[in-house]
């Protein structure tokens, strides 16, 4: 089983630091840091707005990866969710499994 984990970060520096850490620790085979996005969300009873950096991680260990992202993250409640991949190009799935 492989998965893509989606997470957002406060800025590019945090996204890069956490991505490098989890790839080095082999919790993710790869991380794609995406362009900044504008987020509108409810936090502690107020509507907030923020610029954030989304990222996609490829992993065979989604639960461990999400836990590690949460431990390294600056937010109290970081967004980190897994999309389990039911079908994938076999060599790609094997690469993800071998590297995470």
Describe the protein.
With 100 residues, the protein is an alpha+beta fold. The chain has a single domain, classed as Alpha-Beta Plaits (2-Layer Sandwich). 33% of the residues lie in helices and 39% in strands. The chain has three helices and five strands; from the N terminus they run E-H-E-E-E-H-E-H. Strands 1, 2, 3, 4 and 5 form a five-stranded antiparallel beta sheet that branches. GO terms for molecular function: copper ion binding. Pfam families: CutA1 (PF03091). InterPro entries: Ion_tolerance_CutA, N-reg_PII-like_a/b, N-reg_PII/ATP_PRibTrfase_C.
Q: What are the key terms here?
A:
3 helices; five-stranded antiparallel beta sheet; 39% strand; Alpha-Beta Plaits; 5 strands; alpha+beta; 100 residues
The backbone outline, from C-alpha atoms, is elongated
The whole-number mean of residue pLDDT values reads 97
Rg over C-alpha atoms, rounded to the nearest angstrom: 14 Å
CATH-derived topology? Alpha-Beta Plaits
Computed structural class: alpha+beta
As residue ranges, the low-confidence spans are: none
Helix content: 25-40%
Q: Give the SSE order as H and E letters.
A: EHEEEHEH
Summed up, the helix count is 3
Give the total of beta strands. 5
- For the record, what CATH class applies? Alpha Beta
Largest sheet: 5 strands, antiparallel
By CATH, the architecture is named 2-Layer Sandwich
Query: How many independent structural domains?
Result: 1
């Amino acid at each position: 089983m492989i998965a893509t984990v989606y997470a957002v970060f406060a800025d590019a520096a945090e996204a890069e630091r956490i991505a490098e850490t989890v790839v080095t620790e082999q919790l993710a085979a790869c991380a794609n840091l995406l362009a900044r996005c504008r987020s509108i969300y409810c936090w502690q009873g107020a509507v907030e707005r923020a610029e954030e950096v989304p990222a996609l991680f490829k992993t065979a260990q989604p639960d461990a990866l999400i836990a590690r992202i949460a431990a390294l993250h600056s937010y109290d409640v970081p967004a980190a969710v897994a999309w389990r991949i039911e079908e994938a190009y076999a060599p790609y799935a094997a690469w993800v499994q071998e590297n995470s």
